[in-house]
Amino acid sequence: MPPHHTTLHDNFDVDYVIVYRFADTTKAEASERFRDLVQALARVGLATEVRNGENCALLVFVKVASDARLNNAVYRSRVKDWLYGIRSAQPDRETQNSLTSQPLTEAERYRIVHHLITGPKEEGNAGITPKQGQWKNVESIFPLHDHTFNKEWIKKWATVTFLKVEDLDEIRNRFGEKVAYYFAFTQSYFAFLLFPAAFGFSSWVLLGHFSSIYAIVNCLWSVVFIEYWKRQEVDLGVRWGVKGVSAIQEKRREFQYEKEVKDPITGETVQVFPATKRLYRQLLQLPFTVLASTALGIIIATCFGIEIFLSEVYNGPFKSILVFLPTVLLTALVPTITTVLTEIATRLNDYENWETTDAYDSAMTQKIFILNFITSYLPVFLTAFVYVPYGSLIVPYLDIFQLTARPFAENEKQLATPQAGFTINPARLRKQVIYFAVTAQIVNFAMETIVPYLKRRGFHKYQELKTERAAKKGGAASNAAANDLPEEAEFLARVRSEAELDVYDVSTDLREMVVQYGYLTLFSVVWPLTAVSFLINNWVELRSDAVKICVEMQRPTPYRADSIGPWLDSLGFLTWLGSISAAALVYLFSNDGLGPDGTPADIKGWALLLTIFFSEHIYLVVRLAVRFAISKLNSPGMQKEHAERFMVRKRYFEESFGEDAMELPPPMDREKITRSSLEEEARQGSMRSSTAQDHFWLRQRSWEESSSIGVGLIEKMAPAESKKQQ
């Protein structure tokens, strides 16, 4: 086996660390469960070491006990891939030869060891599921960071603009395909943003806002990007050897079957939950969508009305301060309601009783996307399609929000809503889009990087103060490092620090990119510089996410994937909706970008619907054309796949028929034909019984004679013209 990579602070060949916490468990029960844990690990060939942890916890260090055990697990994993069609060729039965031709990456090693720890017992694994059942004391299972690689990674990325495919290969080899696909998508998105950024800047200078030309080009760009990324996913899947890996479904432990039936094809006993019953449960998504839309819609619409009243109607003291009241309300209420709705979505997803982890995650992603769609885009939709066309009709009814400013008003006149002559603020929509394209991106960056850093520093400072206070009182705070050996002290301090970090969830970062893409497709026609802002943000985002993984999060378990999952469907939906939204915005704001001035009189419903209809159908036609064109293009991934299939066919042919199956048979020894030899041949023929078929096939005894006689016949029967040409 190849040795572990030597890190800046040696990881002592540790594969995984298991945090076993027993603060809320009796000593007897904690001891018994801990023995079960160590025995379960030992049964599957894993060696363990135990050290003190923080706050009533033990650190269980795990590694594979022998190379033979790891080699066997690697061979089983690769054979399973071959049986499912992920690998084109059967792995070599000699595992060492297989590892020589296809070396074991860190990600593959960690994935296989993690499967030994958490995989089902029926498949020869330990079956340890953190925080569930008999393993409720197992708090977390995580691999350790390679700090040498982390430092080189951050340093390298800080000096380059575009990532090469080799950089993505390195991420895949370290953190697995699921994380690598996120960085590949973000890098492709970043590279594609160069065109809309340049074109958007030109449109901002030359064409102005709400340009139909910009809307068409932006929609075409969105279609090309999505179709290109679909091809890119396939290429990367072939390059990384994970194409079709989603076919290997991991069964959920929480799945509850209703009956067991015998598979008519395989003869195996299969646990079944009726699809119709799950469909009935899925129908609950409809009231959930209504509930989420209503709850979040009421809050956002209310704050929207308050903001309009305070900024455009109220004209009294403290106006410059009161205009921030809606922001404060949104900041306080939306996350709270979103948390409640997310909990409801999780319970609903559990109730749907999905059999596999992939199906469960896909259904959960759809529900989370609904919540993010409402919270992210509803404010802009309200401004564009409610405030702008119907502002003059709505504002007179905003006097219900007088309560928000009444304590500060000097007289009723400052609170009175205009009954006529109100004019909307034409710059409101543009300012709102600029906020989400620039300010919100900066705020999200701060929440992702700066706030966790400050929280971590504050926690460490609190621990230090607690220790000092205990020392002053004559006591001593419990110190997990008190009995550490000197040669292990630095290593154990780092492990305890990593154990306190949060678990990295790549879906969170993917969701952020998808939401950002939605702003670009839906509303960038309002402010063409949107892509410029996103281009700058995403360059920083790629580097900050790398820092986040290396510094602020535990090292992610290297899960496999062959795409970005259900988020691809969300991107397709936003692209389709963007074709409609952009067309509607261009129509509404075609009056030099001022819109219909707050009155719906100038809006012709039939014209708006016709615009949307043609825009959507043009989008569908363009998508088919782009998809067809891209499918005809060759790519490195497709070439590699064709080459692998050819080599498999060639190998099978050679193994079945021999390497010389297509070679000519050796020439026969030519004997001199004499009278005696012909008489002998005739005598031998008369001695054995022969048929007309035997005589037919004995007239020419080799391919050489057939060739010679054939050439002679050609010479005799060839036409005169052929002879002249010769």
Automatic annotation (TrEMBL):
<feature type="transmembrane region" description="Helical">
    <location>
        <begin position="207"/>
        <end position="229"/>
    </location>
</feature>
<keyword id="KW-0472">Membrane</keyword>
<keyword id="KW-0812">Transmembrane</keyword>
<feature type="transmembrane region" description="Helical">
    <location>
        <begin position="286"/>
        <end position="309"/>
    </location>
</feature>
<protein>
    <recommendedName>
        <fullName>Plasma membrane channel protein</fullName>
    </recommendedName>
</protein>
<dbReference type="Pfam" id="PF20877">
    <property type="entry name" value="Anoctamin_N"/>
</dbReference>
<dbReference type="InterPro" id="IPR007632">
    <property type="entry name" value="Anoctamin"/>
</dbReference>
<feature type="transmembrane region" description="Helical">
    <location>
        <begin position="433"/>
        <end position="454"/>
    </location>
</feature>
<dbReference type="GO" id="GO:0005254">
    <property type="term" value="F:chloride channel activity"/>
</dbReference>
<feature type="transmembrane region" description="Helical">
    <location>
        <begin position="368"/>
        <end position="388"/>
    </location>
</feature>
<dbReference type="InterPro" id="IPR049452">
    <property type="entry name" value="Anoctamin_TM"/>
</dbReference>
<dbReference type="GO" id="GO:0016020">
    <property type="term" value="C:membrane"/>
</dbReference>
<feature type="compositionally biased region" description="Basic and acidic residues">
    <location>
        <begin position="673"/>
        <end position="683"/>
    </location>
</feature>
<feature type="transmembrane region" description="Helical">
    <location>
        <begin position="573"/>
        <end position="594"/>
    </location>
</feature>
<feature type="region of interest" description="Disordered">
    <location>
        <begin position="673"/>
        <end position="693"/>
    </location>
</feature>
<dbReference type="Pfam" id="PF04547">
    <property type="entry name" value="Anoctamin"/>
</dbReference>
<feature type="domain" description="Anoctamin alpha-beta plait">
    <location>
        <begin position="13"/>
        <end position="138"/>
    </location>
</feature>
<feature type="transmembrane region" description="Helical">
    <location>
        <begin position="321"/>
        <end position="341"/>
    </location>
</feature>
<dbReference type="InterPro" id="IPR049456">
    <property type="entry name" value="Anoctamin_N_fung"/>
</dbReference>
<dbReference type="GO" id="GO:0032541">
    <property type="term" value="C:cortical endoplasmic reticulum"/>
</dbReference>
<feature type="transmembrane region" description="Helical">
    <location>
        <begin position="179"/>
        <end position="201"/>
    </location>
</feature>
<keyword id="KW-1133">Transmembrane helix</keyword>
<feature type="transmembrane region" description="Helical">
    <location>
        <begin position="517"/>
        <end position="536"/>
    </location>
</feature>
<feature type="domain" description="Anoctamin transmembrane">
    <location>
        <begin position="171"/>
        <end position="643"/>
    </location>
</feature>
